[in-house]
Amino acid sequence: MTVGRLSVAVQLVVVVVCALFFFVLSRSVRLTQVRLWAMAWWANALALTAVFVLAFVSPPPIPVRLGLALYAAGKTCYALLMVAGTRHHLRPGVDVKLKVVPVAVVVTAWSVILGAFAPHLGFAQLGQSVMVAGLLGLGGVWVLRRPRHSRSRWLGAALLLEAATFAHYVPLLAPMMWGGRPFASYLS
Asked: Which end of the chain, N or C, is more open, meaning fewer C-beta atoms within 10 Å of its C-beta?
């Protein structure tokens, strides 16, 4: 098993463990934010499964464009659900204003566009890195500006750290826009 395959497999296993943890937690602690975070981790698992299949299963059992769209949909839903859960955590009792139809339209449009126009997985990762870093970064700033109590600041810090993780991929993947290779070899 190559290092790249092992890395994605480990990420996938960790995300599935997080998804299982939040699923079990959502069954015992009936809080809206926990249910939203459980759904977010399952969406992230879908995205990483698509990456694993596209990058390491030859030939892929699904069309590449569909795989890219599934990756984009999973990562987009992950970011949206994490921020929605955070909003509910900070304002318990206030219903989460996620209107299913408009969110589904935006996620579907973004995923179809990325799946149709990204020439390969690296371009899709670049687009998703920008989008997820932006959403999680805005969510983190929102939390830090409106903490429910002082202990809620950990949530804002966690979102900002996750946003920074996604943002660090952008300059490393950017050379692909002009036909170059990513700057860091670990991205492959």
From this structure: N
Q: How many residues does the chain have?
A: 188
Distance CA 122, CA 119 (A): 8
99 CB-near residues (< 8 Å, 6+ apart): none
Query: Does residue 97 carry a pLDDT above 60?
Result: yes
In angstroms, rounded to a whole number, what is the distance separating the alpha carbons of residues 177 and 11? 26
CA dihedral (188, 65, 136, 9) positive or negative: negative
**Which residues, in sequence order, are CB contacts of 143 under 8 Å at separation 6+?**
86, 90, 152, 153, 155, 156, 159
Q: How far apart are CA 72 and CA 161, in angstroms?
A: 21
pTM: 0.85
User: Could you identify the residue written with the tokens 């750290």?
Assistant: 161
> What is the number of alpha carbons within 13 Å of residue 30 lying toward its C-beta?
0
pLDDT tens digits for range 125-153: 888 999 999 999 999 998 888 877 777 78
